[in-house]
Amino acid sequence: MATSSDIKNGFTFRHNHDIYSVVEFQHVKPGKGAAFVRTKIKSLSTGRVLSETFPSGHKVDEVRVERHKMQYLYKDDMGFHFMNTETYEQARIREELIDNPGFMREGDTIEVLYNTEDNTALTVDLPQYIEMEITYTEPGIKGDTATNTLKPATIETGAEVRVPLFVSTGDRIKIDTRNGAYVSRV
């Protein structure tokens, strides 16, 4: 058991029958009254971010987690299959645990957060930025560049992103995996 004074960014604990990770925290000692910890916590099962306040000395049930580098192998009807790059053990992970599975290529190394108590995967963290090749996009219309117009483009994994008009088929682009937005041409 940990107390509210142990709370820091990345701290994982069980709260209201779910596992949460601390995104942001602030220890507050008002001039009048008891100290407390104001937090923003993210549910590792649903991805929902909540604001919670814990009084000073409040006991929380800490959950031990480990991060493993895993290599994405393939997808089938049972889920996504990964291999631990250190032990070569294979694991199947449900699609709900992956934020943007359309940005994973076979052979990519991805970080997986595991609960050490029962060895279950909690989240799959893709790199923040990835580089992909555009396999198909319509050509841009000449003279239509006065505004920030975007057009759909299909990348090598089959996912669709919105890109500026000057990007064409065969170009390599940098994509933000958190929201699927175009960042730059590479």
Write the layout of secondary structure elements.
Elements (H helix, E strand, L loop, with lengths): L1 E2 L8 E4 L2 E11 L7 E8 L5 E7 L3 E4 L2 E12 L2 E6 L5 E4 L15 E7 L4 E6 L3 E9 L12 E6 L4 E5 L7 E5 L4 E5 L1
Antiparallel strand pairs: 1-6, 2-3, 2-6, 3-4, 4-5, 7-8, 7-10, 8-9, 10-11, 12-13, 12-15, 13-14, 15-16
Describe this structure in words.
- The model has no long low-confidence stretch (mean pLDDT 90).
- The radius of gyration is 21 Å and the shape is flat.
- Strands 1-6-2-3-4-5 form a 6-stranded antiparallel sheet, with no helix packed on it.
- With 186 residues, it is mostly beta strands.
- Helices cover 0% and strands 54% of the residues.
- Strand 10 and strand 11 form a beta hairpin.
- It folds into 3 domains: 61 residues, SH3 type barrels (Roll), CATH 2.30.30; 61 residues, OB fold (Dihydrolipoamide Acetyltransferase, E2P), CATH 2.40.50.140; 57 residues, OB fold (Dihydrolipoamide Acetyltransferase, E2P), CATH 2.40.50.140.
